[in-house]
Amino acid sequence: MSPLAFFKSLEGDPARSDKREGTDYILQPEHCNLVFDPGIRGLDQIRAAPGDLAGPIKIARQQTSFCNLFCMFAITRPVEGPIFPRCHKWPGESFVLFTHTQEFLSRVAAAAKHRGLKVEGRLVEYYDESNYSGEVGRFRKPASFSYQSEYRIALAPGAQEAFPFQVGDLSDITSEVFPLAVADGVLKFRPEHLEAAGLRWD
Question: What are phi and psi of 8, to 5 degrees?
Answer without folding.
Answer: -70, -35
